[in-house]
Amino acid sequence: VGQENINTNIVTLTRYLNEEQTKYSEATGDFTLLCHALQFSFKSIAYYIRRASLINLSGLAGSANSTGDDQKKLDVIGNDLFIAAMRSCGRVRILVSEEEEEAIEFPAGPNAKYAVACDPIDGSSNLDAGVSVGTIFGIYKLSDDAKGTKEDLLRPGTDLVAAGFTMYGASAQLVMTMKGGPVNGFTMDDNLGEFILTHPDMRMPKKRSIYSCNEGNSKYWDVATREWCDTIKNAEKPYSARYIGSMVADAYRTLLYGGIFAYPADSKTPKGKLRILYECGPMAMIFEQAGGQAVDSNMARMLTVVPESIHDRSGIFLGSYDEVQLVIDIHKKHGISV
Ligand code: P6P
């Protein structure tokens, strides 16, 4: 081995989770076990995504999911892998998946104290194009009198105990945060088979002139949203447009570089397109805890929004603190504020 200085103090996700647990004397280890099952599901989904083209997993599976989208084979496999991991860890009581119309209830057990919401493969419509897709998840702790039914998930994002996403790009990147804690980024080392802490305590730039939205919908936007978009495009230093069309990829870039991601509710989709439980809520927690902001189309703080049903949707503006504040200020001028 050469003289280069080798880091021998590698912090894997496994080590990080175990060390976190020791900080809480009342910790039972249930949350840690749940997170180990989570990380296994990311590793196995990453494996299948990497091999998709090789073993011809791309293309349609021929079935439709709860919202009628054409299901790609990987959607089905990703969903099955995620459900198996959550069932087998024995710490999850109720699971909501984008791919399942109804919530999945696991048998009540003394340690099954968590509710999980997830989108196993978000952005999957881009899979065949080789665009980065990802898994988004949110974790709620059940109250002692919880019945273990879907109502246990119809809560504001401020109740989330943890949230995160894994982006399956050149390598699998996991970003996760626990309530009140730092946002940490982990990169999968395929040789070690471990997620390595590579981005400790991620903090967003307060502002950045990058905007990320599907302007093909702009004719349906409200006047305040159109004014916001015109304002940044006609700024003295016009903003750069970056839009991938896969929320995890657009969110990860926005988290790293700064800027704003927007999927406003509009006259075509009055409730918005993105789902509260497993897209908007978890992302809002991550961005807030990294120093950013997230609001819905009524300019309400995203984490205070309560879903009416498990697949309920919302408009969202997500990004650097000052970039979202500009949206809020322009909407306030138009009488849209909370
Ligand atoms: P549009 C992918 O289908 C997704 O759910 C998100 O990942 C992404 O941000 C959004 O929809 C893209 O939507 O209408 O711009 O194609």
From TrEMBL:
<dbReference type="GO" id="GO:0006002">
    <property type="term" value="P:fructose 6-phosphate metabolic process"/>
</dbReference>
<dbReference type="GO" id="GO:0042132">
    <property type="term" value="F:fructose 1,6-bisphosphate 1-phosphatase activity"/>
</dbReference>
<dbReference type="Pfam" id="PF18913">
    <property type="entry name" value="FBPase_C"/>
</dbReference>
<comment type="pathway">
    <text>Carbohydrate biosynthesis.</text>
</comment>
<dbReference type="GO" id="GO:0006094">
    <property type="term" value="P:gluconeogenesis"/>
</dbReference>
<dbReference type="InterPro" id="IPR033391">
    <property type="entry name" value="FBPase_N"/>
</dbReference>
<dbReference type="InterPro" id="IPR028343">
    <property type="entry name" value="FBPtase"/>
</dbReference>
<dbReference type="InterPro" id="IPR044015">
    <property type="entry name" value="FBPase_C_dom"/>
</dbReference>
<keyword id="KW-0119">Carbohydrate metabolism</keyword>
<dbReference type="GO" id="GO:0005829">
    <property type="term" value="C:cytosol"/>
</dbReference>
<keyword id="KW-0479">Metal-binding</keyword>
<dbReference type="Pfam" id="PF00316">
    <property type="entry name" value="FBPase"/>
</dbReference>
<dbReference type="GO" id="GO:0006000">
    <property type="term" value="P:fructose metabolic process"/>
</dbReference>
<protein>
    <recommendedName>
        <fullName>Fructose-1,6-bisphosphatase</fullName>
        <ecNumber>3.1.3.11</ecNumber>
    </recommendedName>
</protein>
<feature type="domain" description="Fructose-1-6-bisphosphatase class I N-terminal">
    <location>
        <begin position="12"/>
        <end position="200"/>
    </location>
</feature>
<dbReference type="InterPro" id="IPR000146">
    <property type="entry name" value="FBPase_class-1"/>
</dbReference>
<dbReference type="InterPro" id="IPR020548">
    <property type="entry name" value="Fructose_bisphosphatase_AS"/>
</dbReference>
<comment type="subunit">
    <text>Homotetramer.</text>
</comment>
<comment type="similarity">
    <text>Belongs to the FBPase class 1 family.</text>
</comment>
<dbReference type="GO" id="GO:0005986">
    <property type="term" value="P:sucrose biosynthetic process"/>
</dbReference>
<keyword id="KW-0378">Hydrolase</keyword>
<dbReference type="GO" id="GO:0030388">
    <property type="term" value="P:fructose 1,6-bisphosphate metabolic process"/>
</dbReference>
<feature type="domain" description="Fructose-1-6-bisphosphatase class 1 C-terminal">
    <location>
        <begin position="204"/>
        <end position="331"/>
    </location>
</feature>
<dbReference type="GO" id="GO:0046872">
    <property type="term" value="F:metal ion binding"/>
</dbReference>
<keyword id="KW-0460">Magnesium</keyword>
